Amino acid sequence: MAAVPLFISEISPKKYRGALGCAPKFLLSIGILMSQGLGIFVLNTDDTWHYLLAVTGLFSVIHLIMFPPCPDSPRWLLITAKKPTAAKKALQTYYGVDDVTWAMEEILHEHKEEMKEERVTLKSLFSNKLYRQPLLISFTVMSSVQLCGLPALYQYAIYVFGMIWPNDTKTINYAILGTGLAEAVSSFTNIFIIDRVGRRPLLLYTCACMAVLNGIITLSLNLSNPNHADGWTYVSLICIYCSIVAFSLGPGNVSYILTPELWTQGPRPLAVGLAVQVQWWSNFLVTLIFPFLQTAMDAYMFLLFMAIMVYYTVFVYFLVPETKMKSFEEIVAQFRLRGKYTEKDNHGVTDDKTEMGDVGQN
Q: CA–CA separation, 16 vs 185, rounded Å?
């Protein structure tokens, strides 16, 4: 989960970086849909359910066969391994063209700017003011993948849908399968729109949408008839599906693309690795407390997730920059020009600073 977005961001042309970055999430959603279908309708007995675990081995074998011939990251080969010939061949392989001079020059320019900064260690990543703003953005957007509440809904889908259709297992199973289908379709759609719409608008509007939907879900679950399906029951169902769509178009996808884009080659691996750690610790937290929230708050637990999504909406509006169609150096330069990366922090030279909120609004 840490290496995949990092690797794809480094091998993709900036024109298609968003679309290619969405591909793993789409394939992941296909895997979720397949596991739901097999688990509910095929391998659903005490004697067969464990065969579902063996299915993952098939895809692991495919990965072991197909991935080794792929070249290493051109940026890693050129900047870290100091192998320009191998880097050029890797770029030609991934870009599908012979003339990659412009790409080599772009990477070298990024490296030239990076050399002005001190060597990155775990300590310097946190202590150096140079990295505080992108680190805050990386940690926050990655935590939104879990703290928005949708992953918890997947893990406890039966219980959540049980509030809508008590004692109706068949309908609940179809509803669960529908969640996987909604995520797969929206993830596929995102491949075609993310490089047109941009990362920031997708993240901003989907977070706001999820905040509103969580409020409506709270209302509809409390107004619906617990004994049989009524109009409010279907309002709840539609809102849950719409939340899944918003999640797949926004936090569930954009976070993995945006985070590697905020960094140059030097700090990128360490920063992305830590951001993914934040995401999984957030997953642990939500998984741990969700049953207790459900017991204590029942349908009102969605109000908590609504408040969380309001926070993320405000954060994205004021602090998250747009990275669409920009090189890594151009993205980092946005922080430098607006005072986020200042030469004063590293070399004692003062640059002009602007207000923090200006970064996200351009």
A: 20
